[in-house]
Amino acid sequence: MERLDAAKKKYQATKARLTTEINAQDRLESANKSAEGEYKESESMATEVDKEIRTQKETLFKESQKLFKLRAEQANLIGDISGTLSASRNLQANINKLRIEKQR
Length: 104
Known about the structure:
mainly alpha
């Protein structure tokens, strides 16, 4: 009888421990599934961010090319303006010279 009671107690303790372990396993599996979901979401977000970075880099490159062309055009215009100003000064000097000669 004592052996039977001891076996029943051992069975109940084992059964309780098994229930506890099953509950712990369920919690861990649930946490694992949640972590997997978060990981997949993070991967998706990382992919989107990478795509956005590539798009922004392409845009930056195109805008840099436009800026380069505009700066080259600006340099040409500045050169043209400078040349025109020099020509204008030369013509003004010639006009002044002719006026002085005409007054003599």
